[in-house]
Amino acid sequence: MNILSKRMEAAAAMVTSGNILADVGTDHGYIPIALVLEKRIRRAIAMDLRRGPLERAKAHIRRFGLEAYIETRLSDGVEALAPDEADTILIAGMGGGLVIQILKKGESVCRTAKELVLQPQSEVERVRRFLRENRYRITAEDMVLEDGKYYPMMKAVPEKTVSQEAAAGTDPKRQQLCDRYGPLLLLQRHPVLEDYLLRQEKQLRKLCGSLEQQEKSAAVQKRLAEVKEELEQNRLAQWEGMKHAGV
Question: Nearest-5° angle of CA 77, CA 33, CA 114?
Fold first, then answer.
């Protein structure tokens, strides 16, 4: 029985088998339920800030007879989670700003987990930059297209020290490119990222043409410069994909 959407299944697939999962913002509790049913995790802690979704999650857990394997907790972020209590912390289905807030506020707990699985719904570039600047290393990335929307996601592991690459410094333009589009998605020439880049290029070129037809006010000139910069980043991202594919 498949109870997961395409994006949820992709996020669940990033959880390392045999781990104990903490699902932050669990909503209906479907990801921990699916992973326990498939025997991919030992047990889970399903957490949510709101009582309504948590009650729904409890009902679904009871329906599948998994009360012994999945515990529910009312929690603001990881507030109700103890250090070393979970191997994987999953944060999905919320904006990037909130994801960062949870990681900052719960740093002492998040850094004791073996891995974070994140699926921010917005500000993905900002989330990647936060991970890079706060000693988390992205070890896996994926991206799916569902109902006309693109969902990038990542697995990150905490590091005790800054990596040699980070310490040595990276070309700022390349770093911005990786933060915006995903270092491993670029490296893998991910097909969904390729589709996204082509669609984004078409939209940006159309917007650029529209702006160039408008009266040259300061606001329009500023926006036009921003769009042209985005187009350049898009072009570089497509080139990175072709380069890694040996084209």
Answer: 50
Segment (H or E) for 61: helix 51-63
The three-class DSSP label of residue 185 is helix
Regarding whether 207 and 190 lie in a shared domain, the answer is: yes
| Cα radius of gyration (the chain) | 20
Cα–Cα distances (Å) from 64 to 15, 17, 51, 59, 233, in that order, read 21, 20, 20, 9, 47
Token digits of residue 75: 């929690």
Backbone region of residue 16 per phi and psi (left: phi > 0; alpha: psi in -120 to 50; beta: other values) = beta
Model pLDDT for residues 1-51, shown as the tens digit of each residue? 578 999 999 999 999 999 999 999 998 999 999 999 999 999 999 999 999
Q: To which residue do tokens 């006309």 refer?
A: 148
Q: Is residue 1 part of a domain?
A: no
> What are the phi and psi torsion angles at 64 (to 5°)?
-95, 0
| Contacts of residue 60, Cβ cutoff 8 Å, sequence gap at least 6 | 28, 29, 30, 33
- Which residues span the domain enclosing 223? 170-247
59-114 pLDDT per residue, tens? 999 999 999 999 999 999 999 999 999 999 999 999 999 999 999 999 999 999 99
Q: Is 164 exposed, middle or buried (0-12, 13-18, 19+ CB in 10 A)?
A: exposed
Question: Minimal CA–CA distance to 24: which of 123, 15, 223, 166?
Answer: 15
Gap between the Cα atoms of 8 and 27, Å rounded: 12
d(C-alpha 130, C-alpha 103), whole Å: 9
Last residue of a domain, one of 152, 168, 184: 168
